[in-house]
Design goal:
Blueprint: E1 27-33, H1 42-53, E2 57-63, E3 79-81, E4 95-101, H2 103-111, H3 117-123, E5 130-135, H4 139-142, H5 145-157, E6 161-162, E7 166-169, E8 175-179, H6 183-193
Parallel strand pairs: 1-2, 1-4, 2-3, 4-5, 5-6
Antiparallel strand pairs: 7-8
């Protein structure tokens, strides 16, 4: 008996599931902003992530009161949370990156303080999830002995990863190391950390 051709309407089209992002849960990225002038880059960092990998990630921003002096939450293409919000975000995020990390917050984290939303989230953080910090401060602050001690606590005890600052003319007028890493570097590190680097 000859084989009959299957009608087209009964044939299920082949789907390349390796490229079907709907099947994969979006990576949840929490971005922290502290009281450094480098917080002005937050809208650009979020915008770049949304434009390049927005279909693969969800983003929320946590800002200290001091950080909000440098950007308007309305300019950020993500929800911006402040100290009045709930620190249970620790259960939501796959990773936490603080960009910028100012000297004040660095000292707080190294000593275990929890007096704002960022420090409370990190005090209760699940250590199996990654934390990246991007220091940004005056050159003299960066060169201070306490900075090295505090960073050592973050890397050696808490196992945070550090994206070091760069040398440039700082907002205070000094030329030297202390400026936050370039926004493009930060975006690429975030993408790598959640496994979506291209």
């Amino acid at each position: 008996m000859p084989l009959r051709r299957i009608p087209d309407h009964l044939i299920t089209p082949l789907v390349d599931y390796s490229k079907d992002t709907v099947l994969h849960a979006k990576k949840k990225i929490l971005i922290g902003a502290t009281g450094s002038v480098a917080s002005v880059k937050i809208p650009l960092i979020v915008k770049t992530l949304v434009e390049e990998v927005g279909h693969l990630v969800e983003i929320k921003v946590v800002a200290t009161t001091a950080a909000l002096h440098f950007f308007d939450p309305k300019d950020v293409l993500a929800e911006v949370l402040t100290d009045k919000d709930e620190w249970s975000l620790r259960n939501w995020a796959d990773m936490f990156i603080i960009c910028p990390l100012d000297a004040n917050t660095l000292a707080k984290l190294a000593q275990g303080l929890c007096d704002n939303l960022i420090t409370c989230i990190l005090r209760a953080w699940d250590e199996s999830r990654s934390v990246i910090v991007c220091p940004a401060m005056n050159t003299n602050m960066w060169n201070h002995k306490f900075t090295a001690i505090h960073l050592s606590t973050l890397t050696d005890v808490l196992h945070y990863r550090v994206i070091p600052p760069i040398s440039k003319l700082l907002a205070c007028g000094d030329l030297g190391v202390g400026a936050m890493a370039e926004y493009r570097t930060i975006v690429e590190e975030i993408k790598k950390e959640v496994g979506i680097s291209h």
